[in-house]
Amino acid sequence: MRFVFLLLISFLLANPVIAQGNKMSTQDRLKQLAEKKREYEEIRKKEWEDYLVRVEESKIAKQQKKQADSIEKSKIQTNVIKDDELGFTKCIVQELPFYEIKNLTTGIEEKVSFDNYLRKHIYNKFRYPEFAMDHELQGRVMVHFIIDKEGNPQVKEAIGPKNGLILEEEAIRIIKLLPTAIPATCDGKPINIMFAIPITFQMQE
């Protein structure tokens, strides 16, 4: 991105120079380009510093959530709540979530497994954040989420690479865009079910 920006600056500066004839010397032009480059680098540095503040704030928020969840979990254990009351049950017959999609050719509703739908969904909704590309952020984000009893996604956690907050946010956005599914069932009754899916952000060489 930075090279594209510098080429654009070069083009914009070259046009007025041509119009002026040869009034601006090569040395002046190089100084002007160097100044533009310096300004651009300062903007990028400030963006990165602001981003790192957000990363730290996110880490603190995650730690606080873990502590709160830990306290809540200890309360649940002391109350001796059964599995089915928590929404996670042991089943004799369990069916995973799925989608019913109308076939455009036949017009008939067809069953699509959750895994197959999820792969296509990630491919179609994936968007590499421009900020991440500018600052060469890449890596794998593991998203933990639930498809609840109504078939809706509920993201529990996203764990990405170092300083990968913006990648985590994009992975969460993708999962939250999942449409309502036919929920998982346990012995015929709708249940919550947990998934963990990796989403990889890798820049092309």
Name the strands of the widest sheet in spatial order.
1-6-7
CATH architecture of the largest domain: 2-Layer Sandwich
Strand content: 15-25%
Poorly predicted runs: 1-14, 17-21, 76-87
Assign the CATH class of the largest domain.
Alpha Beta
The outline comes out as elongated
Task: Report on this structure.
The structure is a single chain. The protein is α+β, with helices and mostly antiparallel strands and 205 residues long. The protein folds into two domains: 58 residues, no CATH class; 116 residues, Fusion Protein Consisting Of Minor Coat Protein, Glycine Rich Linker, Tola, And A His Tag, Chain: A, Domain 2 (2-Layer Sandwich), CATH 3.30.1150. It has six helices and eight strands. The radius of gyration is 25 Å and the shape is elongated.
Quick description:
With 205 residues, the chain is α+β, with helices and mostly antiparallel strands. The chain has helices spanning 2-19, 26-78, 83-86, 114-125, 130-134, 165-176, and strands at 94-95, 98-102, 109-113, 139-147, 153-159, 184-186, 189-191, 193-201.
